[in-house]
Amino acid sequence: MDKARSVMLTAADHNLKAFSPIRIGFLEIGNRFVHSATHEAMATVYGEVTEGLVKRYQVLAKGEIGLIIPGFMFIDRAGKAAPYQTGIHCDEMIPGLKRIVDAVHEREGKIVFQLSHAGRQTTRRTTGQRPIAPSGSFRDPINILKPHEMNEEEIHGVITSFGEAARRAMEAGVDGIQLHAAHGYLINQFLSPFFNRRDDAWGGTAGNRFRFLKEVLAAVKRTAPEGAPILVKLNTNDYTPREGINTKLAAQYAEKLARLGVTALELSSGTLFYSFMNVCRGGAPTRELAKGMPIWLRPWVRIILNRWRERFKFEEAYHLDAAKRIKPVVGNIPVIMVGGLRSLSIIEEILQQGHADLLSMSRPFVRDPLLVKRMKEGVMNRVSCTSCNKCFAAVLNDKPLRCYADNGLLR
Length: 411
Hints:
ten-stranded parallel sheet, alpha/beta, globular, 12% strand, 15 helices
């Protein structure tokens, strides 16, 4: 990627691929921009949709983003990752979820819900119970708990919960489903040799570790209408202390998903408990990030963040190498790439060279929800987000998602 390139790209360039339509299954997307799922910390403590959530997606839809994926939604109470996370775990959530869908559709936008189970990446404070996981053989650095290792009945129960959550999403009127298989959550845990240390039919080999995602996908297909878009967000690198998913293994999983008929793949990296700054590289607001951790852990978080800054140093399009490796093995399946996309010229070059088919962003839409519309109109060709990560620190502190860059320290 030639970052010295100084070409000014605006809406006057009518042949820009960034603003051309694309199909994801039977769903036509008006342009190549995707709002990547971003935890909002704006639901009630029960997971109910609030007026603030509805208004957020009204504004985002006004910005003419091709596809909007709201923040991850927990499929059952044991899988809740954060206190104010949006729920899709029971039918009572459907009317509120429909309000979000309607807000996007009223602006002729497209919307996909991301379904998630936290697995070991939660706490007793959030769920009221011991976390569950593929393996319980080691403690996590945040909650200092050994999770309960799931048995066969529990595994199949969670698979069923994913299917039921997909049904609720469809009843709310969404255009598709995305399964969250990244960032260290439960599906990622089953896929990763770092987290999954089982030696039964659910672990031990790449094929066995893939089985959980395969069966979740089958459960979702059984409850969703035939041909409904089903996307997967996949880690290309776990960045865990011992090797987990790397790009080579991610490519194997991507090829399997393509054969199973997944409609699109979004590529990301990092885990919340072991490598959270690889999820969103850039600034490390140490004080604010540490404040979201248990009191006893805060000094260590400050030390680690200061010592490891170079490991998550920001660079534009930091998942590009992974996309180059994975795109050739998935055939015609659209690849969505997230991670440090900041300029229209880089976005256009990635699309023109065929390394990805759509580009997703998170923090830039927090700063400026209208940025796609502004780019299309030629008002701007680079996002205004500075990747300071204060918005990320905010949601870790259970504060509502918004841009805190101009407001000093979190209060």
